[in-house]
Known about the structure:
This protein has helices at 3-16, 84-93, 113-123, 136-139, 185-194, 203-212, 214-224, 243-251, 254-275, 284-294, 297-303, 306-316, 353-362, 380-391, 421-429, 448-458, and strands at residues 154-155, 158-159, 279-280, 336-337, 398-399, 465-466.
Amino acid sequence: xxxxxxxxxxxxxxxxxxxxxxAETAPLTRASGRPVGSLSAPADPSAQAGATxxxxxxxxxxxxxxxxxxxxxxQAGSRPAWSEPERATLRSLWIGALGPTPPDRSNRVAxxxxxxALGHRLFFDPALSGSRQVSxxxxxxxxxxxxxxxxxxxxxSGELDRNTPGLLGLGYSRWFYWDGRRDSxxxxxxxxxxxxxxxxxxxxxxxxxVASRPDYRSAYEAVFGPLPDLDGLPERAGPLxxxxxxxxxxxxxxxxxxxxxxxFADIGKAIAAYERMLVPGASAFDKxxxxxxxxxxxxxxxxxxxxxVAGLRLFLxxxxxxxMCHNGPLFTDGEFHNIGTGTLDGSxxxxxxxxxxxxxxxxxxxxxxxxxxxxxxxCPELRSLARKAKAGSLVGAYKVPxxxxxxxxxxxxxxxxxxxxxxxxxxxxxxxxGSAMIEFRPMFDMTPQHIEALVAFLETxxxxxxxxxxxxxxxxxxxxAIPAERPAQ
Length: 489
């Protein structure tokens, strides 16, 4: 039975269930007996010592010393069962609510298993890079849940500007990169190939690679049709890259440039078909939700320890505000939010989403471009972006990452600035001074015990990828071993 089929069956059983869970869901509590998720305001919020406003955001309530929770103050039986609204929220976060990967009408082969098999081989092949040393898997390593474990990615010319996002669940995304500068998985897959600092290849080299290898050629032509004629084309040519490659590209007749570009776009579509196969599997949290819905208290108590359940209650609370951005079965809304991590001035300025809109709108592989396979290119989201950019509401905003496997995919944030989840959560308690336009209320009253509970819950979101086994490792190669990842330094 496929994973999607299991999700459908589990969803049906949970929707039909009427059980509830009891005392083993007791949360971390304060000495006063109030739960962590119920932060009560002091009589005079303006009297908070050391409280500052960040971008006009009012400070959160502060706990009196007597209200601070004792270490590990988990009191089993101190809370009632999950309420029906809480259970509805749990069901919305459950992996079984994910559903099938939505169709990508811009990619006619998005769900073609033959395209995915070709994309799998290309994903691991360093011959797509100018040096023949860097592949997609250099940064997106299966052994690291398709990340690289580095603060910032390493490309052909050294360290890149941003942290490497994971790929699990990529097929559910609407935008790609931390700044959303691509609007399809296949257009994203093409960008690193031609980027001088990443793979430093050219589109002529990429298409020639596919044409020159009998296994690649036959697989490509079975899915996309005949490859273009490459006779007489220069070794390196493309609209990006070094000056010689760009000059060689401009000298080509327009019809030949168009034929090569269309084949290059198909390479990206094959890689995206592979990446769509990679989804997160069921975690301890998901098994807990299933036990809650069955009313199986013993099973629930076995799956999550009390500290993790306390963290879950805090995660769901309006005080913590986690659900504002981290909602749905992938624990992300897929959009862009400002949490005060942008660098808005200086030589290393990074404007986040505001800086990603211009390259998105200018890109030749965008939704409105000629290489979109969809019969209708309405692209309403794309048409509205220019208005948002002018309003300035996206300055310093970055794409919200999934929290699935978050405990295993450090470091964190768009620039890898935080090495641990504890550091991340502390940021939400005390954003750095001068952080403007942040979209959350800093939780100045968050204690070390709150943080410990949240980390314990986030650790329950870890799980192996759910994909065909052959897609979770490098493919066999008829041309020698294809390295899966950059060797350890």
